Amino acid sequence: MDLKTNRLLIRELTAADTGALHRILSDREVMRFIEPPYTRQQTAAFITENARSEVPLVYGLESLETGELIGHLIWHPYDSEASELGWILGRAHWGRGYAAELTETMLAIAKKELRDVVIQCTPEQAAARHLAEKYGFFFLGVENGLCVYRFVSKTRKGCLTDRQREELIHAMLGKTVTVTIDRPIGYVHVKSGITFRYPINYGFLPDVLGGDGDEQDVYILGVDEPVETFTGRIIGVVRRADDNEDKLVAAPEGMLFHQGQIAEAVRFVEQYFDSTCESIYHKSCGVIPYRWVNGHLQLLVLKQKGYAAFRWSFPKGHMEAGETEQDTALREMREECGLTARLHPQFRETMHYAINGWMPKDVVLFLGEAAGELRLQAREIENSRWVSLREAGSLLHPDHLPILKRVEECLCVKSSC
Asked: Are residues 79 and 186 in the same domain?
């Protein structure tokens, strides 16, 4: 590769570059977050193995003004759809904009070749992380101690692959964004003979590629007047199984909507698609089914499939569009175990916890006297048991213990029964 930027020549490295490159790679500050400083022998081996290989992994960076070797460029296949981009520069050349110049140049090449670009750096390399975010890379998480950022290019058909769509969603959830609104509240849109009047604001993220090859669309919740732009947090996604783009959902900072509320808000459009709604705020509702046998209280617990620990729980599930908490609780009970229930009028308890340490979840539980024939949903439920309060406390997650105490108080029984 012989390629010029405004100030640099990107070229092949040769054995003649060993001395100049060693002066850079032996600098402890340059190598601080990478590897221990190189010896001259290690530098020579690095050139042979990485720059003189059949498919070079690195290239030299030469100043067009002075002819000096100032560092090397990392540029090689990362996976079947992306190239990895990186750079190491001599300390004297830091802070001069060379990294940005290289990023712009290599992004332009990737866009022409319809390839993604990946940058990997340590959490301490703030400059590299800032540069990735500045140029529209999505943060995919930390892998093997390295922050992974990916720039998503258009594919051959102008759409994203399923994997790229998933990476986009993963990168955007929880992120603060500014949305350009092109369909404000009250906007009328006609498509395929159907007239849509927008009850919520709807727009797009400038320069962020969506699944259909155009800019990523976003529903706005929690704003009750038409706006031209909106800055808030991505709190959810509407996934379309029969379309090539998913829709993001944003709300004002500090405001959360669960999946059922999102589904209800976007129903005016999404009823025409095979779509499901997800939120970073999860809300489930369920019933604690009980019965009396010979004067003794029994609670029904279900053993869920696929859980490594605390697999026993009460019938519960996510809220759907238009449902009340009681609607969801009774529906889930009917679906999971075939029972109906008469709900106790003074019982409503909530458990709060976080999924993966950051996504809030609420589980609302009602107390209901069970009726009907027990029929387990084979797809999700492995087994069931009618147990005493004491047995329930040993099977369920410890977070249930205060709720079991409330069951005892409501039904005026002792935990020994």
From this structure: no
Helix (H) or strand (E) holding 14: none
What is the residue-level pLDDT of the chain in tens, covering all 417 positions? 789 999 999 999 999 999 999 999 999 999 999 999 999 999 999 999 999 998 899 999 999 999 999 999 999 999 888 999 999 999 999 999 999 999 999 999 998 888 889 999 999 999 999 999 888 887 777 888 898 888 877 544 455 667 767 777 777 888 899 999 999 999 999 988 889 999 999 999 986 777 777 788 999 999 999 999 999 999 999 999 888 889 999 999 999 999 999 999 999 999 999 999 999 999 999 999 999 999 999 999 999 887 655 689 999 999 988 899 999 999 999 999 999 999 999 999 999 988 877 788 999 999 999 999 999 998 889 999 999 999 999 999 999 999 999 999 999 764 444
| pTM for the model | 0.61
- In angstroms, rounded to a whole number, what is the distance separating the alpha carbons of residues 287 and 322? 19
Cα–Cα distance, 77 to 62 (Å, whole number): 22
Among residues 94, 178, 106, which one has the least CA distance to residue 135?
106
Does residue 288 share a domain with residue 272? no
Verify that 298 and 373 share a domain, yes or no.
yes
Helices (H) and strands (E) in the chain — how many of each?
A: 10, 24
Same domain, 275 and 286: no
